[in-house]
Structure formats: C-alpha cells, structure tokens
Amino acid sequence: MKSLLKKAEHLLEMGGEKKDIVFLVISGAALLASIFDFLPLPFDPAWVAILLCGIPIVLEAIIGLVTAFDIKADVLVSLALIASVCIGEDFAAGEIAFIMQIGALLEDLTVAKARAGIEKLVRLTPRTARVVSGEQETVLPADQVRIGDVIRVLPGETVPVDGVILSGQTSVNQAVMTGESLPVDKTVGDEISSGTVNQFGAFEMRATKVGEDSSIQRMIRLVQSADAGKAKIVGLADRWATWVVVAALTAAVLTWLISGQIIRAVTILVVFCPCALVLATPTAVMAAIGNATKHGFLVREGDALERLSTVTKMTFDKTGTLTYGIPEVTAVKCISGYTEKEIYILAAAAEQLSEHPLGKAVVKGCKRSGAETIPPCEQFRMIPGRGVSAAVQGHRILAGNREMLSENGIPLLPNVKAETDAHLQRGSTLIYIAVDGAFAGYIALSDTVRGESASMICGIQALGVQPVLLTGDSENAAGAIANELHIVQMHANCLPEDKLKWIGQYQQEGQCVCMIGDGINDAPALKKADVGIAMGGIGSDIAVDAADIVLVDDEIKELPHLLALSQKMMKTIKWNLTFSMALNFIAIGLAFPGILNPVIGALVHNAGSVLVIIHSALLLKWKSKP
What we know:
The protein is α+β, with helices and mostly antiparallel strands and 626 residues long.
C-alpha cells in the first residue's frame, strides 16, 4: 500500500507549475460549460475539474494520513469534495477543487518569486575552466580544478574558482557576490571570487579555493538551507490546523443531526478548511526572505527572522564590522629638519619590502598622498616585534615601535611623548621614524570607521534596539569607536569566551541578543546569540557557517531594514492568522442556518486564502522608512 502511495506522490510532483496552469485552464473552461450548458456531453463537464484538480487533493490527503497520520487541510477539502459529489452537487465539488488549486498555485508562485533572487546563484555556477600548463591550455569541468592550478579567464567568461591574479588586468562584475553595480578593476595580486564575470581584459590566476570551498558554492549552500518551514510559528499554525479539522468534522456532524440537511454540513466542511491559516505563515516568511535577499542578506532559516523581530540588544564586533578592518595613515608628524612629505617617503621606502599590514598601509598611503616615486631601499631587515631597518638614499632608516627606539638609544622628547600619547588614547597605532640615529617623526595609523556605521547605529536605536560593542581591542581603541558612534555599552579586551559570557549574561536578564561579527573569534558568539549575523564578504568561513543570516556585501547600512522587516513580517503573520480564523467562524455562522451553500462557501473560503497570500506577497517589495 505504502509503495503505491509513494508512486502516486511521485506522479503528483511531476510537471510542476506549468502542469497546474494547464489543468486550471481546462478545469475553468469545463466549469463554464457546466454553468451555461453549451457542450452536448453525456456527463456534467464539472467532472473534468473534479478529476484534474480534485483527485490530486484527495491523493495528497490519503498519502498524508497513511504515511504520517498527518491531518491537514487536504483531509477536510477531500471530505467536502466527496460529500458534495455524494449529494449530487457536482458543480460545487468542481468549483471547490478548482479554487483550492488556484490558492495552491498562488502560494507556489509567491514562494518561487521570493526564492528566485537567491536561487539564481545556482544557475550562475561556472561549468568549465581553462587550465594552463606551460604553453598548453585545457578546458576542464570546473569541479576538476585543483588548488594551485593556473587558470586563464577570457573577457565575458565567469570566474570558475576563487584565486589570485598572476598576470593581466581587467574589470570584473562582482554583482553576484557583492551587489556592486559597477565593474571593479583588478590587477596582479588581487583576489578574485568564483561566480564573478570578467568584463574586458584576459588574465591568468592561481586557484586558491575550489569546488565546495569556492565563494559561489558557499553562497549556494547557504541558499539551499533557507527554509521557511523551520519557523516556530509555522509549527503553531500546523497544530491549529489539526484542531480545526477536528472541530470542523464535529460541527458538520452536529449541523447534520440538528438541521437534518446534509448540504449544510457539507458547506461547513468547505468553509472550515484551514487553508488560509496554514498559508498565513510560510508565505509571509518566504516573502520576507526574498525581500532580505534584495538587500544583500542570505537568511538561512525563517526562524531567524522570527527571533530577530524580538531582539532588544544588538552586539557588534569592531574590526571588520563597524570598521573596515584595514589600517590607514591618519597623521604624519615631522620633528627634525625634514618636511612631513620627506619623512613619509623615507618611511614608505623603508617599509616597501615589509609584509606587515602596517608597513603595507604606510606604502599605500604614501602613494595615495601624491608621492611621485618611492626610492628603493637597501640592506632591508625585518626585526620581529619591533619594526624594520633599511638604507634609503644613503640614510639609515628605522621604522618601528617605541621599544625599537629605546633599544637603539634614541630618546623621545617629552613634548613629543604627550602628542603620541594623545594619538594612543584615540586608539591609533604609531610607527616611530629615526634617520641616522636621530628621532625624526612618527606616523599614526588607525582602523577607519565605515561611513555608514553611524547612521546604522541610529537606525537600530530608533527601532528600540540597544547597540553594544564587544571587541578584543584595547580600551582606548574601543572607547574611541564607541564615542564616535554614540554606543553607550562597550566591553573591550574580549576573548571569545568573554563575548560568550556577556551574551549569556544579557540572555539571563531576559534580553534577546543579536550578534554581528566577521572573524573566527566571533563564531562562538554568533552561535550563542539568539540571532547571529556574519559579514559575508570579509568574514571567515567559520563565522559564516556559525551564523543564521549572512550579509553578503558587508553593507551594514541595511541592518535597520532587516530589523524592521522582521518586525513587519511578524505583524503580517499575526494579521493573517487573525483574519483567517475570523473568516472561518463568520462563514460557519452563515452556513449553519443555510445562508451559504457549498458553492458560495467555497468562494468565500478561498477568497480568504487568496487575500492572505496577496497580503504576504506585499512583503517582497516592502521598504522600511528611512
């Protein structure tokens, strides 16, 4: 028996939306023929609608009952169909089946539209790659590329794997990964992600992440895990649906016994079907997920949006989340007879062979400042934990921390110390410069705040959520950022276990906590929080895997919209549930005295289902007020 039901279930799944549309068109025409009787058939044309639209409903109900004892709306609809046929109301049975299938199709189309913005990533997966070995180029399936392979990408082609450009320069359309509408220039040494599209020049790259580890595949895995059915409130609606079925059967039997008219009992079965109740939540959740996708979020499960709607505290990591996570030169100070520009160029020359992020920031900043050329350096030496030493244009240059000056017997003047301490209080990092054994000046670097961080913090505060800074940085660096962004609550010098402790403490106080982070050290906190949001662009794989929601393009300015969207989604669900229950009880009140017949009852009931779906679909294009 179960094997036969499994085959029937497989047959029901075949064809998809196109089949449903064809069946509905044929059924609609048959119902019109039944009304106006313009076809000389030996049977009522309404039977076409019963067979095409009604049989699938009855089969699904039987499959659910036998395989999982799952009592849902299909059971009640099937009883209404069978009862209508038994009492000779063929047109009513056909109309019930026809309108039920319209509601099901609308739901499918709503969900499909909501997911379309995400699932297009799957279609963008590159299938082949040009692997270069010596002078030979071989076109291979993309999944056969290995780490270290050299790949050639021609104009117009999709980048097959993640890698680093070895030769050539181009412009790349990164919209699929970052949402940027304009192409981004790329040259030797730049990282490039799979799924992005090469716009103009050809280039060669070395593969660094392939197969399931590539950026596009990681995004696809997140997409495939999106499931509105995981929301707790969906389970609640399903439980209500079961009780409604039982109540409907009881009401129908009592109506038949009291009135003696089976048609009234059939009408109650029709109008009491909990379709709108069951549709109320999943359509709203999936529409909200579709809306979030348009704003750069990948929501891994609908439950995350439900939990996000109740968040009272939003905790932030600092580096890479509220800031760019990249040091930049913020001040250059000259103490000796050199000019600031000369000190800047000498420091950049000494640092140009350094692999340290601060050294790279100095070189990059010097080039941006307008320096025509940076002179070469000789006798370069990296001193771990201290800085660098090099000969530039005949001068001995030291560029490093204060300990490096002390070890070389170079004193720091008292007035200079006061200036540098002021920079340190603001969270800056200093590189001290000495020329030929004499202190010459210093360069201050700091992690710059994202331009949208301030407005984002104001936005979430306006929604009644309190921001909290949780960072492993020093008290000074954390305090500077917190003051700039008007964040009142701050905890600095946090190890991963400290972040867990603070989130746990807030939760014990009855707060619902959301955590936003990007690093491996944030992964435990992202898991611990009621909702974890990871930065998808710069975030580590571990952080992304630990999060409930991923911000693909790192545009944190969209966080207030996501928060407002989750609150709007819950309001939509509650309105849907209230409306569907009220409509059911009003219809029952009209069906009991015979005011509604099965045909009108089917129209009223399914009109409610359609209104619920349309109301949920409005979330797809909903925008929060700025």
